Give the backbone structure.
Amino acid sequence: MTPDGTRAARDILTFYVENGADAVIGEVPVDRFADPADSPATPVAPRPVRETQAREPARAAPPAQAAPPAPDEAVMAARQAAKTAASLEELRAILDRFEGCGLRATAKQLVFADGNPKARVMFVGEAPGKEEDLEGLPFIGPSGQLLNLMLAAIGLDRTKVYIANIIPWRPPGNRDPSTHETQTCLPFIQRHIELVDPDILVCLGKPSMGALLGITDGIKRARGKWVSYSTGTRDIRGMAVFHPAYLLRNPIEKRMAWRDMLAVKKALANSA
Ligand code: URA
């Protein structure tokens, strides 16, 4: 197997394990799309029941759950629910109860936000990773460590900024969130920003930039440029910068990120 193939196989296995799979049930792959007429006439002998399975008492069937809402309903439900949040505490509670996004089922917990809710600058990333999922706080893994250094470079820390993500649940195996997941979570982060009411919004990476600032250009072209962002109650300044995870992979770009952070510092000083 090629190194890429090995990595892909390991990622898939990690995904299954993280989602609770703890046993394989067949050694031969089954093509479920194959035409039954083409199947071999000889039936495959059933595999013996594993010893552990034979000893375990039958588990009770899980309680029936309501079917998840159809996609558009989920987005509508998110919009309705987000509107009703009068405070950050209410928004957190609403998100905790919200069942319209399937990521909630595979994540360990909600990753709501970190930092100072009275901060004048808010940073928004894409979605939590493994460490964030375990701790319930955004940006505490390797890219969070780099974000801390970026903040420190302009005299900020988590007591002076507020940090959240577009998606508040970890996608399994750190896969990219789907467009529908992003659209479903968008009303919540928009309301989140409105409630925090910062003077400056910094989008960390392209997905956050696309979802919040509506910019579809590549991040290399669009980063570092101020645009107007409407919170719903007022217009504030918004900018996209490279995501710290990208900077970890492309350290040469740190000089651009440094430039952008200086622009954030200057904007904060000018709007004080
Ligand atoms: N990447 C993100 O976009 N958000 C986090 O919270 C962590 C990593």
Remarks:
- The beta strands are 114-115, 121-125, 162-165, 200-204, 227-230, 235-241.
- Residues 71-270 form a domain with the Uracil-DNA Glycosylase, subunit E fold (CATH 3.40.470.10).
